[in-house]
Amino acid sequence: MKVLSNGDKVGIIACSNGLEEANKIKMKELEDTLSLLGLKVVFSDKIYRKISVFNGTGSERAEVLMDFFKDCSIKAIFDISGGDLANEVLDYLDFEIIRNNPKSFFGYSDLSVIINSLYSKAGLKTYLYQIRNLIESYKEKQIKEFKSTFMESGNELLNFNYKWIQGNSMDGIVVGGNLRCFLKLAGTQYIPDFQDKIIFLESLGGDVPKMVTYLTQYKQMGVFGEVKGIILGSFTEMERKKYSPDIEEIVKGIVDNPNMPIVKTDEIGHGKDSKCIIIGERIELLMV
C-alpha cells in the first residue's frame, strides 16, 4: 500500500521520552538509510534530552508535531521515541487541523496513546511501527519490506503469521497497541470507541501480576464486552522468561468468553524484526 514516493519529505519526531545524546550516531544512520530510499529527512529540534528524560515540555513537543502536520511538504511523520511521556502532548493538539492535513504517522509502544488519539479524534489511520527497525538487527529485511510496502505496491510488512487461540474468524477495525500505554487513555476524551472493533495488544515488560492487573482493567472498562476480536502480539518479558500462566492462558481466563475470537502472533511488537499493524484499518482474519 504505497504511501510514500521517491523525493518525499518525512519528519522525525520524539513525542515521548527524549533520546540520549549518544543516539545521534544512530539517528545519522537512520537519516542516511531513509535518504538512500529516496526520502528527504527533517528532524524535530526536540529529539534529545535536555532536563532528565525531557526533550521539551508537552506543549513544546506538541507544537513541533502540529508544525509537521501543517507543513504540506511533509508526507509522513516517524516518531522514534518511547517510554512514558507521550500523553503529555495530547491536550495541545488541534485535531481539526490534523483532520484537514492528514498524513501517515508511525510510532509504537508509548506512542500508542497518540496513534489511537489521531484515529479517534481526527479519523486518521496510523501505523504501529518503529522506523528505527530500519537500522537495527534485521535492517536488511526491514528496509526491503518497508520499501516494498510503503513505497511500492507490496504488503510484506503488513502480513503477519498467527495462530488461533479460540474462534476461527474475526473482522473489524483495529485499535490498541501497547497494553500498558494504551490504558493511559482510559477515562479521557481520546480513547477510541471499542464497539465492534478488533483490539490489538502487545507488551515489552511485565510479569504475570502486571498482565492480570492491566487486562482486568480492560475487562472492568467493558472493552472485552464490546470488541469483536483480540489480536495478541509479542509479550517480550513474559515469553523470554517463560512465565506461567502464559499470556494466552491469562487472556482467555480474564475474557471468559469462548465465543470471543483470539489470535496470537509473535511478529508484531517490540522486536527489531516486528511487522506493522494499522490502527483504524479494517482487518479480516480467517482460519485456513
From TrEMBL:
One of its GO terms (molecular function) is serine-type peptidase activity. InterPro entries: Carboxypeptidase_A_C_sf, Class_I_gatase-like, LdcA_N, Peptidase_S66_N, Peptidase_S66C, S66_fam. Its EC number is 3.4.16.-. Keywords: Carboxypeptidase, Hydrolase, Protease, Serine protease. Residues 172-285 form the LD-carboxypeptidase C-terminal domain. The active site is at S109 (nucleophile), E202 (charge relay system), H270 (charge relay system). Residues 10-127 form the LD-carboxypeptidase N-terminal domain. Signal peptide: none annotated. Pfam families: Peptidase_S66, Peptidase_S66C. GO terms for biological process: proteolysis. PANTHER family: MURAMOYLTETRAPEPTIDE CARBOXYPEPTIDASE (PTHR30237), MUREIN TETRAPEPTIDE CARBOXYPEPTIDASE (PTHR30237:SF2). Belongs to the peptidase S66 family. This is LD-carboxypeptidase. It comes from Clostridium chromiireducens. The lineage of its organism: Bacteria, Bacillati, Bacillota, Clostridia, Eubacteriales.
